[in-house]
Design goal:
The complex is a heterodimer of chains A (426) and B (79).
Chain A (H helix, E strand, L loop, with lengths): L1 E9 L2 H9 L8 E4 L6 E4 L1 H5 L8 H10 L3 E3 L3 H16 L4 E6 L2 E8 L6 H15 L3 E6 L2 H13 L6 E3 L6 H6 L11 H9 L5 H6 L2 H19 L17 E11 L2 H21 L2 E12 L9 E12 L2 H15 L6 E9 L2 E2 L13 H21 L40
Parallel strand pairs in A: 2-4, 7-8
Antiparallel strand pairs in A: 1-6, 1-7, 2-3, 5-6, 9-12, 10-11, 10-12, 10-13
Helix pairs in contact in A: 11-12
Chain B lengths: L10 E5 L9 E6 L2 E10 L2 E5 L8 E3 L5 E11 L3
Antiparallel strand pairs in B: 1-6, 2-3, 2-6, 3-4, 4-5
Classes of the chains: A alpha+beta (426), B mainly beta (79).
Chain lengths: 426, 79
Amino acid sequence: MALATVLIDGNNFYASCEAVVDPAVIGRPLVVLSNNDGCIVSRSAEARALGIAMGTPYFKVRAQLERHGVVVRSSNYALYADMSQRLMSTLERWVESLEIYSIDEAFGLLHRPAGGDLSDWGRALRRQVLCHLGLPVAVGIAGTKVLAKIANRAAKVDPARGGVLDLAAVADVEALLETIAIEEVWGIGRRLARWCRLRGVAHARALRDMPAGELRRQCGVVGLRLQQELQGHACLPLISVAPAKQETCVSRSFSEPVQSLAQLREAIATYLVRAAEKLRQQRQRAGAITVFVRTSPFAPASFYSASATVTLPLASNDTAVLLAAALPLAERLFRPHRALVKAGVLLQQLQPDDLLQHHLLVPTTPEQQQRRERLMAVIDGLNRRYGRGAVQWAACGLQPAWAMRRSRLSRAATTCLAQIPRVLAR
Amino acid sequence: MQGAGIGDGDLLVVDCGLEPRPGQVVVARLGDGFTVKRLVRWRGGLALAAAHPAYPLLPLPADGDHQLLGVARCVIRCC
């Protein structure tokens, strides 16, 4: 039996999540803004139809959005991450193995019954996701990842396909591949697309049929693999276990420029506390910390960008230890009269937390270590249960003026009991 | 929905994985709000009925602005 590769992804994922928890926005144009209410990062179908472009800065189109009665939402990552998790656990039951590719996208592998058409399977999957989660998804089925991606795209573009397309059931695959512009082929970057165009290779079909030697000379084995995938020979395996992270970064733009050392310390502490929490979730310790800051790139005369790194004598995921190492870096980087617009914390040299290389000059006993680990586990548990910030480090400040702007945030309708949707029971 | 044992402020556990059938208490989206009612057969189609007879039946035309979201499975009463 042959294997089939399927790509499932959410349509307008963030915008769709907003509609799941707030029926008042169904059928209305809606856009979701990036961090700090900066740019438009997701649009409902209705907002697309109005011609609102992806990535547009909010302040530029604010008046236009208001005129059209467009609903505007800040990014509610708690909601999107939770819906994503639900989506992935639903998908897991439908395939033999699943690769979570991004927050709203996953590849799956399953056996194709001899001569079988998986269109009905795809439609049933789509129906279940819609019914259980309220999320519309597109399902593309083919023999390889690159082709599944193309099938997924074709399923979305043509409304007659109802969001599902099995390439094996398409009568004229040649014609379909010719509708896929070279820029839309997965793995083709801007430079490679230009190179292809110069050679008259304008669509997926032409790329599939071009001389392999030529492709190999230009982009090596990567291009060859891509071509093989287009020809139906799978060479990009499914990666169902995410590789351990090498680095963890938390960085944000400030809602207003940070001009004092006290504020910068608060911001760095806040990002570090979050990064340390991630680290413990990933069951890792960090061996080094980098802190970076910068002013606005739109004021080039006074532009300032700097970073500083400290190596820890003993790898750690203890927030107190990491704070004590990182805060002096904030002091070192701070310059008076430089209005900082962004800062971040990068945890590096990550290693699994079950192996710890001890240090001759840093005496710790296993008992001390275990006490600290238990403390961190208790703090994380409280914050998970009662909401982030239920137990906070004083270094983070109480009422930060610089905190990310999220003026149009929807409710945490799936992760906080007090904010679940209300139903009229008359 | 006092008649169905659902009071103001109660927590409702809703199974969105079940296909709502007539006779069941369901959660539906009507226009831009969520509502809980009993699903009933009505003139060859479906309608939503409140537990209290004083409230009128809400027919669900096939092309209406509504959606059945799930079946109410149990009620948790806060005291």
